[in-house]
């Protein structure tokens, strides 16, 4: 019997390793009893207006930015808008993997000090939206989270759209949990 490893053995071992990596790319939640359903996560993404976008910043330090957003459930994408330059944009150009955290306002039970809230973390890749018409659509949808006054939205888009950069995040993994601060 030969102790040599054949080509098919190498391929089989590599494929097995790749499958293990794919299965563990995102960690499962340690406190699984607090895990939100996918529907609850989507509800938070659809109703909340702000979250924290985290990128790999200068010298590989994490950089978290409070930011307004719009979640498109059909596309499974999160959209952002902001300035055309700065730390956030420089970081995204260097490294497109990001995370985004959103949490609701929470509540307190009568007679208790603890805050109960739900949070959602999204992992994915982000890119700059190059299409101007798509950027205008993103700005419009984002604005509708704050006001239903479409005439005001039209005025603001006309005035500021050319100065805005929009970002598109492909959601690769969405998870959430219910937290009681005790």
Characterization of the model:
The chain has 182 residues and is α+β, with helices and mostly antiparallel strands. It is built from 5 helices and 8 strands, in the order H-H-E-E-E-E-H-E-E-E-H-H-E. It has helices at residues 7-23, 38-47, 87-94, 132-143, 150-160, and strands spanning 50-56, 62-68, 70-72, 77-82, 97-103, 107-108, 115-128, 165-180. Strands 1, 2, 3, 4, 5, 6, 7 and 8 form an 8-stranded antiparallel sheet that branches. A hairpin with a 4-residue loop joins strand 3 (70-72) and strand 4 (77-82). Helix 4 packs antiparallel against helix 5 (150-160). The longest helix is centred in the first third of the chain and has 17 residues, at 7-23. The chain is globular and about 50 Å long. The model is unreliable at 17-23 (pLDDT under 50).
A few lines on this structure:
The protein is an alpha+beta fold and 182 residues long. The protein has five helices and eight strands; from the N terminus they run H-H-E-E-E-E-H-E-E-E-H-H-E.
């Amino acid at each position: 019997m030969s102790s040599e490893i054949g080509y098919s053995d190498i391929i089989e071992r590599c494929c097995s390793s790749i499958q293990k990596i794919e299965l563990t790319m995102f960690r499962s939640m340690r406190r699984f009893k607090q895990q939100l359903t996918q529907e609850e996560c989507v509800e938070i993404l659809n109703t909340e207006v702000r979250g924290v976008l985290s990128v790999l910043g200068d010298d590989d330090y994490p950089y978290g930015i409070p930011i307004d957003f719009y979640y498109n459930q059909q596309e499974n994408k999160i959209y952002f808008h902001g300035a055309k330059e700065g730390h956030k944009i420089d970081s995204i150009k260097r490294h497109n993997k990001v995370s985004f955290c959103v949490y609701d306002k929470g509540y307190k039970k009568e007679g208790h000090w603890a805050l109960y809230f739900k949070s959602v973390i999204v992992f994915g890749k982000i890119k700059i939206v190059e299409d101007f018409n798509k950027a205008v659509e993103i700005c419009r949808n984002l604005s509708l989270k704050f006001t239903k006054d479409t005439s005001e939205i039209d005025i603001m888009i006309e005035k500021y759209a050319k100065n805005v950069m929009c970002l598109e995040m492909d959601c690769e993994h969405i998870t959430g949990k219910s937290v009681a601060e005790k």
